[in-house]
């Protein structure tokens, strides 16, 4: 197992669960007592709200400057510095990208040869490609997997299959749905690890996400303070015992996600 990780999280369209997975990975590393730095190109800055000072926001204005050949270097200079420091300190890095910026991010990583830099520094680069059952998202997954393999040969591609809205790739999945022949699909997924995030009704989860609580803070919160999150149409909150039942259900979901991610990413077992 490498001493540290650089995990890049991509998805070509929004709403797939990139920020959730970024938060999950960062909190797993915290639970192991390891240092982690998070870089985010999300203009909503949700991770900064949830994870605090370990999050650095990428200047996305620079990512939208095609006429400036140095724009990408300026935008990602904090990440480059962190990778250089990680080789000495062993701290890990998570890069959460907004859907708009997946191509500039991969181009920057390729041009800088950062998969090689990470490997030479004793780490491992993992590119996590996040998708739900949205057909456009699955098509993008197919395309981006090929791009990542060509651009970052030393990185390990991982599919994060977010089953929030249904099974992403069932046993009888028809690759024609995403415009691939069966042989192409088998070649694309060969050797790619898969992390399956279990289903949870968005009516339970989305209020927690909007409240800006990170996963650990939510699990350890007083249910009485959480009850207001799940109000009815008239704004009436749940009672404390009902809120505690929802909290336990979501806590079980979080534990399952952490176990699945830890196993597939080959992290030490988190507590």
Itemize the secondary structure elements and their pairings.
Elements: E1 4-10, H1 18-31, E2 36-40, H2 46-51, E3 55-57, H3 60-63, H4 71-75, H5 77-89, E4 92-96, H6 102-112, H7 114-120, E5 123-131, H8 135-151, E6 156-162, H9 182-189, E7 193-197, H10 202-210, H11 215-220, H12 223-226, H13 240-265
Relevant terms:
single chain, 271 residues, alpha/beta, Rossmann fold, seven-stranded parallel sheet, 15% strand
Fraction in beta strands? 15-25%
When the domains are counted, the total is 1
CATH superfamily membership:
P-loop containing nucleotide triphosphate hydrolases
CATH topology value: Rossmann fold
Describe the structure.
The structure is a single chain. The chain is an alpha/beta fold and 271 residues long. It has one domain: P-loop containing nucleotide triphosphate hydrolases (Rossmann fold, 3-Layer(aba) Sandwich), CATH 3.40.50. Helix content is 48%, strand content 15%. It contains 13 helices and 7 strands. The protein has helices at 18-31, 46-51, 60-63, 71-75, 77-89, 102-112, 114-120, 135-151, 182-189, 202-210, 215-220, 223-226, 240-265; strands at residues 4-10, 36-40, 55-57, 92-96, 123-131, 156-162, 193-197. A 7-stranded parallel sheet has the order 3-2-4-1-5-6-7, with helices on both faces. Helix 9 (182-189) links the parallel strand 6 (156-162) and strand 7. The radius of gyration is 19 Å and the shape is globular. 37% of the residues are buried. The mean pLDDT is 90.
